[in-house]
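dumping this here so i dont lose it
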């Protein structure tokens, strides 16, 4: 049994229970223990096996530390101080529900269950209601940072039963990444499914950032005909300026790694990308809420297209585009490319935060968007200096409707606009695939257009389906119908807005 701890810990009892000792669960457990807490650990896949996962951990990385090994869920529950706090790091979906059903009979009112996996936020809403109806508490928390982040300090995005937060806060904020002034990248984001929603948007933005970087790489490789070493130097230089970020940093490092034959390892990697679904979830939810999440959606589709390797190889032998032969000033174009990357990145985050705002309205979450930006400044995959600017924007105007309207970002977009258009136009003229760059620019041009052609679209809908339309000279919400052909009647369809 563990030694008596200072504070509220009962002698021989653990501060936290951890179910799941795969990469993330094991490293989070070590992180929690390293901050002075006692952790009871259990792995659901091989309970009761003498040399199972728990035994290996207790005799390996956990040896001599403040861990209590449990071979059954009953042992885990008995090892915990009240109110019990149990974090589940298991595969999202059915395994989480099965584990909750197994735990409920063993828990008491006030105990806290935490789902730290990538669960869909609607599942978290359902589970929070289930536990709360039984007098227990539930937290669904996003955890970002991968293996290293879990061990050294991740970004943590908790939401759920509000009364659970004071009990979890000291542990979560102790293990979270810290920004320069010591502020932890962990704070409460809202009730029921808010934490997992924020993590979903984080992952969607991650998809977008990665796709933009890959398109910049493709332009340098196929249009500018740059070597991996030359590209590495560009990304390393970008990482010292406005584009300073974890993903830019690791891109530079990746481009410098050689294969066994001395050639760049990246050239030996098959160009088919995987995904776990969180980017797709963000796109689907954006359609449900009527928020254009175009860049993230293009990033999801880009991965789908990459998976169609055989079809692409066949098409490349049949379909022809223009020659990718660049004849301009390469260094000037690289500078334009960096500006275009920054401007497109602004659009991606603007769309992501607009989705957060609409979700908060729809699901009645009280969110601080500046604090969410702060959660992402350290530990997570999208961490970057850029996020500090977003925090400042929401500090200036907590009710900011769109990040593009903030004075700083509006100015940066204006400064980058010429470069942005040059890059997108050059890519199109030379046949270089840049869906994320292009859709970012199209969103910018759409959002700044006071009068879109949807008036004609509404006329078309009314013509063939009597769907009705609003007029510019009448109050919003008042609908009209025209008998366009002279053969229609007065019967109309109901009006609705998706």
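and the seq i came up w/
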């Amino acid at each position: 049994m563990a030694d008596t701890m200072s504070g509220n810990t009962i002698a021989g009892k653990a501060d936290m229970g951890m179910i799941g000792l795969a990469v993330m669960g094991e490293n989070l457990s070590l992180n929690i223990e390293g901050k002075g807490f006692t952790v009871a650990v259990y792995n659901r896949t091989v309970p009761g096996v003498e040399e199972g996962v728990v035994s290996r951990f207790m005799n390996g990385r956990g040896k001599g530390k403040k861990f209590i090994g449990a071979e059954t869920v009953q042992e885990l529950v008995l090892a915990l101080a009240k109110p019990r706090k149990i974090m589940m790091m298991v595969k999202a979906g059915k395994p989480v529900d099965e584990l909750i059903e197994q735990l409920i009979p063993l828990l008491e009112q006030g105990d806290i269950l935490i789902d730290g996996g990538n669960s869909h936020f609607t599942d978290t809403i359902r589970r929070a209601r289930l536990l709360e109806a039984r007098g227990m508490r539930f937290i669904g928390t996003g955890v970002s940072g991968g293996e290293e982040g879990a061990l050294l300090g991740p970004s943590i995005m908790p939401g759920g039963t509000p009364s659970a937060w004071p009990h979890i806060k000291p542990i979560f904020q102790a293990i979270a990444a810290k920004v320069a002034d010591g502020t932890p990248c962990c704070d409460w984001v809202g009730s029921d499914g808010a934490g997992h929603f924020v993590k979903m948007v984080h992952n969607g933005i991650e998809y977008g950032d990665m796709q933009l970087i890959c398109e910049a790489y493709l332009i340098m490789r196929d249009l500018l005909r740059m070597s991996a070493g030359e590209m590495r130097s560009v990304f390393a230089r970008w990482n010292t300026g406005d584009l300073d970020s974890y993903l830019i940093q690791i891109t530079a490092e990746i481009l410098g790694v050689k294969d066994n034959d001395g050639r760049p390892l990246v050239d030996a990697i098959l160009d088919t990308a995987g995904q776990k679904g969180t980017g797709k979830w963000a796109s689907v939810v954006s359609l449900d809420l009527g928020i254009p999440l175009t860049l993230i959606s293009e990033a999801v589709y880009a991965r789908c297209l990459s998976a169609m390797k055989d079809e692409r190889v066949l098409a490349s032998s049949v379909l022809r585009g223009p020659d990718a032969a660049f004849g301009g000033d390469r260094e000037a174009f690289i500078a334009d490319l960096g500006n275009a990357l920054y401007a497109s990145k602004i659009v991606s985050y603007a769309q992501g935060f607009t989705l957060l705002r609409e979700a908060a309205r729809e699901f009645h979450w009280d969110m601080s968007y500046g604090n969410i930006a702060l959660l992402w400044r350290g530990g997570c995959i999208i961490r970057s200096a850029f996020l500090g600017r977003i925090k400042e924007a929401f500090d200036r105007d907590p009710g900011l409707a769109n990040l593009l309207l903030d004075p700083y970002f509006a100015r940066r977009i204006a400064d980058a606009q010429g470069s942005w258009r040059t890059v997108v136009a050059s890519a199109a003229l030379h046949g270089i695939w840049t869906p994320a760059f292009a859709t970012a620019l199209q969103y910018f041009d759409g959002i700044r257009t006071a009068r879109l052609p949807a008036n004609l679209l509404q006329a078309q809908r009314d013509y063939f389906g009597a769907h009705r339309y609003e007029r510019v000279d009448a109050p919003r919400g008042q609908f009209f119908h025209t008998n366009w052909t002279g053969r229609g009647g007065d019967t109309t369809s109901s009006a609705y807005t998706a």
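Residues 1-9, 46-50 have pLDDT under 50 and may be disordered.
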